[in-house]
């Protein structure tokens, strides 16, 4: 394959993985029949707008429900809204919550609390819901929650640790939405963006029992060296902020279904690559770890593939992390992973790689125009050299976006309206170009 053919194949494979997880594909088969009363749609996360759109269309077209029996609210990331008529869609901050998310969560809880025993509360939950539904516990304000979120994101903590803290500083997370809706029937349909598809971690588990504790939340802050604000420390020592556990009456009428998983997106990528004659070696569908360290491991594996008589791809999913070391850098774990590959694979013949977040945004400032990741190959080295750029220096400052904007290798998809975590493909085609020096 030529360099352009490699890059094109990687993008087709990534797009196939994203398409497999779109709400239009995975939500309708699981939507329940309407009850005697109302269907109250409550959605959150990067796919919330699309989920609301799909559910509204389903109940209007199949059952003829009008606004008297179909209502609700979806809170999604800025730029991810979809057109609806009966279910309101609002945009809010991610990954750092904002005032729109604060109001959206308050309105969501009000709708849940107003549900009666004949109503169905349909919770449509996708990754990003933790930031989009922000309802600080007693004694906390939005600014403190924002600062805590930023500190956790900079610390390199994995998502389950971050969400353990979030659940104990909230009035909606950690099963509290189900408690608000009780005794109405609650059906949750979730698109998983977390390793091992744990419902208590997806969007901080607003409708399921929470196995974590206040002590776990305090331990997470200590482990990742996040000094809590005094109000946070007080909240995490208050027994009133303990989350509802298994056996709580809040969950006696609550069902939960994971309708799409990262593994299904990975399977779609595999099909696309194999149809193109590429051997796929799955490294793992739910990897965790520091992005640059995982990239170093994958680079070593890729070097071991040189000399094969056919193209081979190393494929992985999961969510990596970045510990912030620099100041003012931009980029998320996918771009940092790709930049580490550029540093480590610069002299490998015939390689190309794509690392991207299936929601269309990898780090960034919360804008719909944020990069989804990066597509890199030996040509990246040439362009970097021509501009006097060194991958290692940009890694030191955690400025992968700055590097890839300069080389023209950012992956731009725009909002995809779903989220099943990250996809990373390292393709080795030994019939590629001659070796190059490292950047």
TrEMBL record:
<keyword id="KW-0670">Pyruvate</keyword>
<dbReference type="InterPro" id="IPR025286">
    <property type="entry name" value="MOFRL_assoc_dom"/>
</dbReference>
<dbReference type="Pfam" id="PF05161">
    <property type="entry name" value="MOFRL"/>
</dbReference>
<keyword id="KW-0560">Oxidoreductase</keyword>
<dbReference type="GO" id="GO:0008887">
    <property type="term" value="F:glycerate kinase activity"/>
</dbReference>
<dbReference type="InterPro" id="IPR039760">
    <property type="entry name" value="MOFRL_protein"/>
</dbReference>
<dbReference type="GO" id="GO:0005737">
    <property type="term" value="C:cytoplasm"/>
</dbReference>
<protein>
    <submittedName>
        <fullName>Hydroxypyruvate reductase</fullName>
        <ecNumber>1.1.1.81</ecNumber>
    </submittedName>
</protein>
<dbReference type="InterPro" id="IPR038614">
    <property type="entry name" value="GK_N_sf"/>
</dbReference>
<feature type="domain" description="MOFRL-associated">
    <location>
        <begin position="10"/>
        <end position="236"/>
    </location>
</feature>
<dbReference type="InterPro" id="IPR007835">
    <property type="entry name" value="MOFRL"/>
</dbReference>
<dbReference type="Pfam" id="PF13660">
    <property type="entry name" value="DUF4147"/>
</dbReference>
<dbReference type="GO" id="GO:0016618">
    <property type="term" value="F:hydroxypyruvate reductase [NAD(P)H] activity"/>
</dbReference>
<feature type="domain" description="MOFRL">
    <location>
        <begin position="313"/>
        <end position="422"/>
    </location>
</feature>
<dbReference type="InterPro" id="IPR037035">
    <property type="entry name" value="GK-like_C_sf"/>
</dbReference>
